[in-house]
Design brief:
It contains three helices and 16 strands. By secondary structure, it is mainly beta. A hairpin with a 4-residue loop joins β10 and β11. The longest helix is centred in the N-terminal third of the chain and has 19 residues.
């Protein structure tokens, strides 16, 4: 009896040694056989430290643009470029970075191949005319930061300035000479209540001669 037990014990120890010395066994096979898991092997050029960066940081920033006068909400930017209540017409915009200047605002419901940008009669907005302004609306992506297009149909797409921490947005028209035109009034954008459009005004005197019912407004990014 004792001899049988000794032989069985010796056989099991030998099998265990054979298994342990077999590096080909996977951890799943080891689990099935009740064996300890293999120790992780540190390969050259790798590290056992885990990536401690948060996994919930978004890679894109999608939401809506709210328009207010600093006191009350006036509406939301629609995909058409007009301002109205929060409905299905509201532009669904996406920024690829949380903060920065001269960003492009992708728009999923602005039309095929369109993004939200600025449109203007003029390549530069310093001319003294009543329509020396750029209006926010759906445009084609521009090739650079300056305007593409031709007379009465210039457009820019890299016009947005976003601070994701405060959710504030402003818009700038990039001149042909590399300079930037921000709105000349007390707010980052002008809201013409007659046209119900958001504008960047390049010449306040010329614009004010023929356009009334406008006021400076503020834009806020509302995450979806």
């Amino acid at each position: 009896m004792h001899l049988t037990f000794l032989l069985l014990f010796t056989f099991l120890v030998a099998c265990q040694a054979m298994v342990v010395t077999n590096p080909q066994l996977t951890n799943s096979e080891r689990l099935r056989r009740g064996l300890p898991l293999k120790r992780p092997v540190l390969r050259r050029g790798t590290s056992t430290r885990r990536d401690t960066s948060p996994s919930n940081i978004p890679t894109t920033y999608t939401g809506y643009i709210q328009v207010s006068d600093g006191t009350s909400v006036l509406g939301y930017l629609w995909a058409s470029g007009y301002i109205g209540p929060y409905t299905a017409s509201v532009a669904k915009v996406t920024f690829s970075v949380p903060s920065g200047n001269q960003l492009e605002a992708a728009c999923s419901n602005c039309g095929t191949g369109k993004v939200l940008g600025l449109k203007s009669y003029w390549e530069s907005l310093e001319t003294n005319y009543s329509y020396s302004f750029a209006a926010i609306g759906p445009v084609l992506p521009s090739s650079g930061t300056a305007a593409d297009g031709s007379y009465s149909n210039f457009y820019e797409s890299k016009t947005w300035n976003l601070d994701y921490n405060t959710k504030t947005i402003s818009v700038s028209w990039n001149q042909a000479d590399g300079s930037v035109v921000n709105n000349l009034r007390s707010g980052p954008v002008d809201f013409n209540t007659n046209m119900r459009q958001l504008l960047v005004v390049g010449n306040d005197n010329g614009y004010g001669q023929t356009h009334d019912g406008s006021k400076a407004v503020f834009l806020t990014f509302i995450p979806a």
